Amino acid sequence: xxxxxxxxxxxxxxxxxxxxxxxxxxxxxxxxxxxxxxxxxxxxxxxxxxxxxxxxxxxxxxxxxxxxxxxxxxx
Length: 75
Prior knowledge:
By secondary structure, the protein is an alpha+beta fold. It contains four helices and three strands; from the N terminus they run αβααββα.
């Protein structure tokens, strides 16, 4: 049972890790969560802000949902 819990925790990312993956500022990650644009797991309420983590599969789905075809202008 403890092994299962450690696997779940290993699959979670911090806001700093997500910011690095998405190449954004950490403050942008917290803003996206506050606006409901980025799903997060709230572990508990901290003194200054909630302690949150992100599931890897949620971040992958977020990236996939933002895929679009970009037309490059030449010229």
